[in-house]
Structures are given as structure tokens and as C-alpha cells.
Amino acid sequence: MIDPAFGFGLPVIANTGLRTEIVLEQMQVGETETAIAEDYRLPVESIAAGDPVRVVAAPRDRMILIDASIAPRVARAICLVRDDVRSVADIYPGRTADTTWLLEAGVNSWLVITRDKRIVRRPPERQVILDHAVGAFILGQRGRLTRWDYLRIIVSTMEEMEALFESTPRPFVFRIDSELQFRQFRL
Q1: Which of 51, 95, 103, 167 has the greatest CB tally within 10 Å of its CB?
Q2: Strands, E, within 44-95: which ranges?
Q3: pTM over 0.85
Q4: Nearest 5°: phi and psi at 22?
Q5: Cα–Cα distance between 28 and 114 in angstroms, integer?
Q6: Burial per residue of 56-90, b for 16 or more beta-carbon CB atoms within 10 angstroms, e otherwise
Q7: How far apart are CA 44 and CA 13, in angstroms?
Q8: Using a CB cutoff of 8 Å and minimum separation of 24, what contacts does 21-29 make?
Q9: What is the pLDDT of residues 62-119, one digit of tens each?
């Protein structure tokens, strides 16, 4: 899929944000289509050798990924009432680098919720956000917010986050302040 408003107009595998050049580079160094598909959790059929513009992935269910910067109890509370919400801590063992889970979030078109505003400033994380079309929402933290405050912010803005995730070309990062106002960061 090529869309100037998505992935800077570079060819990507449809519905994933994964740049086809990455797939082709892996093939050039000897990776099999099956291994590449497994690495990115795509159907083997979506890795079409030879014509990167026509590479297409089967649509998958949307998932919301809550970063470990948000209190585990808040993440668990939301997971209890939403089947499509997962915590980074539940998926990745130990202390996983932000670049690892951000890459997978972008490749799989997962909506990201975090408190870590530095992900847009640190070069490795910023580059992963840009390269893999991540859509993220950062919860603002003026003053000291409680777990209840964070839960309230997430629950109160979840529908708007989902609507923006569907309607805003990725990559993007929005900040949500304690007054529930959204502001898009310039990437």
C-alpha cells in the first residue's frame, strides 16, 4: 500500500505499517518468507516476494497496549473490562526496551497508551515511532496524579483515542492532559 499520508509515502504492508524495504532486506540476507512472517506475526501469504507494492497483510483485531509506565493496577483494571487491552508487562518479560515493544505496536497497528513523554524525545524511540507508524497517546502528568486519576483519564478518553487512532494518519503522538484535552506532538 502506498499512501503519501501514511509512512511518508513509502511502500508498507497493508494494515501493519511495516515498510516493505525491511522485508526485502531480510530476504536479501537469506531469511525465508516463513521466518519473516513469523517475526512480524503476519500470514506467510502477505510476504509476496518480488513486488513490495502488492504486499498485503490480512486484517487483524485491534489491540490497545498499555506501557509499563502506567501503574500495573491501572492496566489490570482496564484489562478486566476490555478484552482488547494488554499491558506491556503482560506480553514482554522483565525490562524490555521501549524500542522493542514500540516496533511491535507499529507493525501490528496497536494503539499505545503511555505516561512516558520522553519517547518522542529519545532518538531510538522516536525513530521507531516514525519508521513503524506507531500511534501513541501520552497521559499528561501535571502535579502528582493518583492511580485513580490515570484510570479516570484513560476510561474517559478511550473512545476518543480509538476514533483518533482510526482517523489520524500514523505515525502520531497525542498528549492527553488531566483536563482531558488532546494535543498532537509534532514528529
Answers
A1: 103
A2: 64-66, 85-87
A3: no
A4: -65, -45
A5: 36
A6: bbeeeeebbbbbbbbbeebbebbbeeeeebbbbbe
A7: 12
A8: 21/52, 23/47, 23/52, 23/55, 24/52
A9: 799 999 999 999 999 998 888 889 999 888 877 889 999 999 999 999 999 999 999 9
